């Protein structure tokens, strides 16, 4: 299920609790060439409810809205259908999962998404330190690759990769292409977390969407900053 209209775009991450502020950011950015979608998460959905947040955005723009549960796909297999159904019923256009609970959960949740017609984006490696075992974390070094591979075998084409680790973007892209997948990649961790658009864009290839939060919604002039970021991506 195709999520993004363009091969490359900027996705503002609306990590904002004030729903009027969300409305303002969407109004200030939705007409900027290069904006491909919006991402919402717990900071708005917990206080206001997903339906209200989605409706607020969809009253302004027809661009897709991606729900990032931060992090979903970490429960038992049986809850996958409940999760996907409420996201679908609320009006989300796609969901992000990080299936750290193992392949049984990942498989069940992706199949549930397919059953309700919910496009899914699968993440594996995150942007922060001490995530993988080799960096002092809890997650086995080969686990993200296995998450991506399991998803690919189930027909998933969309994957989250860490924007501040271009070498890892290149690695995962190469792996997915080696198993005959033409991945669509999405990257957080840019600008305020140290990732550079140019490095990550080069590593990601033709189909890549940069997820950018604070650099946009904390800008003094949101529209002009968004135009600058979108123009930069277009030139890469």
Written overview of the protein:
The chain has a single domain (8-235), classed as Aldolase class I (TIM Barrel). The chain contains ten helices and eight strands. Strand 4 (94-97), helix 5 (103-116) and strand 5 (120-123) form a beta-alpha-beta unit. The chain has 236 residues and is α/β, with parallel strands linked by helices. An eight-stranded parallel β-sheet has the order 1-8-7-6-5-4-3-2. 43% of the residues lie in helices and 14% in strands. It has helices at residues 19-29, 42-48, 50-58, 80-90, 103-116, 143-153, 166-178, 197-204, 214-217, 222-235; strands at 8-12, 38-40, 65-68, 94-97, 120-123, 158-160, 184-187, 208-212.
Count of folded domains? 1
From the spread of the alpha carbons, the general shape counts as globular
Q: Kindly report the name of the CATH homologous superfamily.
A: Aldolase class I
Distance between the termini: 27 Å
Uncertain regions spanning at least 5 consecutive residues: none
How many beta-strand segments? 8
Number of helices: 10
The CATH first-level class comes to Alpha Beta
**Whole-number mean pLDDT:** 96
What is the CA-based Rg, rounded? 17 Å
What's the SSE pattern? Answer: EHEHHEHEHEHEHEHEHH
How many strands, what sense, and barrel or not for the largest sheet? 8 strands, parallel
Instruction: Tell me which CATH architecture applies here.
Output: Alpha-Beta Barrel
| CATH topology (level 3) name | TIM Barrel
Kindly estimate the percentage of residues that lie in beta strands according to DSSP.
5-15%
Helix content: 40-55%
Which structural class should the secondary elements be placed in?
alpha/beta
